[in-house]
DNA sequence: CAGTGGTCTAGACCACTTA
DNA sequence: AAGTGGTCTAGACCACTGC
């Protein structure tokens, strides 16, 4: 309770907020089990039904996973999850294959005004800048530029020139405690610039799908910007509207 | 109950299925109020809590709208809803404006094998084929080809050459009893063909965003195929991942 | 067998809408 | 004031998991 600004949200929403904050702050680590529903109800002083409704909300937002007979667990970013929820590219037949990555550049720089704005930073703030190519079934069909605020990813670095199979979002969570909860994407068709065309083995001016993403953490703060260029000769970006 | 194939789904899921079928079959018309929760519970022989859970599922799928103090209503496809859920195109500043349409062609034909397949039809089935341009803020930036099975849209026709402001999905529901519940889209970047470039005022080979959509009705049957070509000079396709 | 989440019920009370 | 959905509680029982 807070006399100055009483929380008028329903009890279950307040309960959900409390539980979410514990997850966001790492009080319960990703992958670990959280207490049984009756225990939570007793601790928080609400009925089991209210706890259940709160947990249902967290489950729909995929912050937790509940399994009958086993318990409730804080969701960990597995490669499968990152691949299924945040990788919207498939082959023409609809098959979704895990890509590999080849890091071309990785540097820490001072953000220009244009780089700072989408991430809600001040111009000049320290920023990690990554450029990589991604291969699906051995073919280089994706170019990606990524910007990360140094403040959230201290000491971040990727090995240039080496092949990577790990999903970045798994790495963010494991090494920097940053969980990506959602992302917004804006798509456009562009003509390939000369250098990008060369990297993808295309002619200058070939049509490319540009995917501009801002990814947000559990507290809905922007923590990653990435621009993906996809050669759609053999792949599609898929979206579901419902 | 059915002795041969007993329904082992939870009661609330069975209840949800029953209510959904009534909506899909038009037992309750779009926009009309459905009975109060206690009445439904009594009629179906389940507890009010079970009915509530079933209605919650229908609400999340946007088949119904519940308003405290007023009642529960079958969702009607308003222009706003069609625009917000099924129109993913915005201006560069993120503004979403309602487009107008200019029908270029509208004909009923026998489906080729390629046209029949995505809609789950047999080759030769009757099909309505539409081509239209869409304007946002007076600028023609969208070309659209649409295919509809005659069986679901008997007598369908659009006035060629006239300006239209109604959303097609509102018209499908009002005039043909077809409610679009969800859609799948596959996106690619392509080079503009000569005739399409001409209609959009672009040069041949200019990059265009191609959006291939299959839309499904309440029973999850494919009922519309459409291919949209978007000039992304001043617009973006937006997607949310969460 | 003990412990977990999942289902189902029953009812009290609150908040909002309409008349 | 009457009627609606929204919240909150309390508890019984079921289904699944792992020891």
TrEMBL record, chains A, B:
Residue stretches making up the HTH gntR-type domain: 9-77
UniProt xrefs under SUPFAM superfamilies: Chorismate lyase-like (SSF64288), Winged helix' DNA-binding domain (SSF46785)
Highest taxon of source: Bacteria
Cytoplasm is among the record's keywords: no
GO molecular function: DNA binding; DNA-binding transcription factor activity
One of the GO biological process terms: negative regulation of DNA-templated transcription
Keywords: DNA-binding, Transcription, Transcription regulation
Record InterPro entries: Bact_HTH_transcr_reg, Chorismate_lyase_/UTRA_dom_sf, Tscrpt_reg_HTH_GntR, UTRA, WH-like_DNA-bd_sf, WH_DNA-bd_sf
SMART domains: HTH_GNTR (SM00345), UTRA (SM00866)
PROSITE patterns named among the record's database cross-references: HTH_GNTR
Database matches in PANTHER family: MANNOSYL-D-GLYCERATE TRANSPORT/METABOLISM SYSTEM REPRESSOR MNGR-RELATED, MANNOSYL-D-GLYCERATE TRANSPORT_METABOLISM SYSTEM REPRESSOR MNGR-RELATED
Annotated protein name in UniProt: GntR family transcriptional regulator
Species, as recorded: Falsiroseomonas stagni DSM 19981
């Amino acid at each position: 309770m807070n006399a100055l600004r009483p929380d008028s949200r329903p009890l279950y929403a307040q309960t959900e907020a409390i539980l979410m904050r514990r997850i966001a702050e790492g009080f319960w680590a990703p992958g670990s089990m959280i207490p049984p529903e009756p225990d939570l109800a007793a601790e928080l002083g609400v009925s089991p039904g209210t706890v259940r409704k709160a947990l249902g909300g967290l489950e729909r937002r995929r912050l937790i996973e509940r399994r009958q007979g086993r318990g409730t667990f804080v969701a960990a970013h597995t490669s499968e999850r990152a691949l299924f929820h945040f990788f919207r590219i498939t082959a023409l037949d609809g098959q979704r294959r895990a890509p590999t990555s080849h890091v071309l550049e990785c540097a820490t720089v001072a953000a220009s005004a244009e780089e700072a704005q989408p991430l809600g930073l001040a111009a000049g703030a320290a920023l990690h800048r990554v450029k990589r190519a991604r291969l699906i079934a051995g073919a280089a069909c994706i170019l990606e530029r990524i910007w990360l605020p140094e403040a959230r990813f201290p000491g971040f670095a990727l090995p240039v020139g080496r092949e990577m199979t790990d999903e970045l979002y798994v790495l963010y969570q494991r090494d920097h405690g940053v969980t990506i909860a959602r992302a917004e994407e804006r798509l456009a068709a562009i003509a390939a610039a000369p250098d990008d065309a060369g990297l993808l083995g295309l002619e200058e001016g070939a049509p490319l799908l540009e995917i501009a993403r801002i990814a947000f953490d559990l507290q809905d703060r922007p923590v990653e910007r990435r621009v993906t260029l996809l050669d759609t000769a053999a792949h599609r970006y898929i979206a579901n509207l419902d």
